[in-house]
Amino acid sequence: MITLALSKGRIFEETVPLLRGAGIEVLDDPERSRKLILATNRPEVRVVIVRATDVPTYVQYGGADVGVTGLDTLIEHGADWGGGAGLYQPLDLGIAKCRVSVAVRADFDYASAVRQGSRLRVATKYVNIAREFFAAKGVHVDLIKLYGSMELAPLTGLADAIVDLVSTGNTLKANQLVEVERIMDISSRLVVNQAALKLKQQAIRSVIDAFAAATKATA
Predict the structure, then answer these.
(1) Which residue range or ranges hold the ATP phosphoribosyltransferase catalytic domain (predicted)?
(2) pLDDT (tens digit, 9 = 90+) per residue, 182-197?
(3) pTM: predicted TM-score of the whole model, two decimal places
């Protein structure tokens, strides 16, 4: 049995065509079903639905053999572009593309504050990414960990800036915020439990190869 960890939402929606291209059909819609373990048309493959931030944890500790998760989540988990944290990253699937950026109120002079060496308060759920980015720039920041509604932080005076995912930028514009720095581009990765890869090598390699072929076909 191969267990694939996915999260609801955009990543699931954009993974489904790749699964289909790999010959795997999920038999339930997670948006309609209360089931957290979903069968597929292949008896040897099942899908578990977990929180996006928990996908690397499930794969690392063997709750799942394979998972699909964003690079941002992997970095916050302690992995990087190549692997780490007990995870093997064989594929960039090229889905759920977005970017991690710094944004501020439209009337806040971010460039001047950075140039003058001001200490900035930055709200984010991406603490590791933000810490490394500002440290590399020599900018002094106090990081405030939030879990949602990031755009509120500058509007209420909680923070001078935010570090968050940006896709179209429409949410920023709707809240009178502007993107001032692009930290990194993000897409979703296929991640594999390293121990499972050894124990179920043939089965998992076939899944990796199928994903690779499906990704290439949709590129």
Answers:
(1) 51-211
(2) 999 999 999 999 999 9
(3) 0.90
